[in-house]
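Worked Example 4.2. Consider the chain below.
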Amino acid sequence: MKSISYINSSLQQDQLLLDIQSLKDQLIEMALLIGLNHPKTVFLSQKLDQLIVKYQKWNFPK
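Applying the procedure from the previous section yields the following structure tokens:
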């Protein structure tokens, strides 16, 4: 039987992947609407970068 902490961690990772995909979709839409250099697009890009780094740290520890 899997431990509860493993299940919680797995669910958190699944949610993080969903958040990454959602933000990616938003970023693409925003870039198409207002351009790549608009501050809102840059903000979303930076936020997406943060989520990706978090995911990488979880799945590829040093």
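The helical segments are 4-34, 39-59. Residues 4-34 form the longest helix (31 residues). Compare this with Example 4.1 before moving on.
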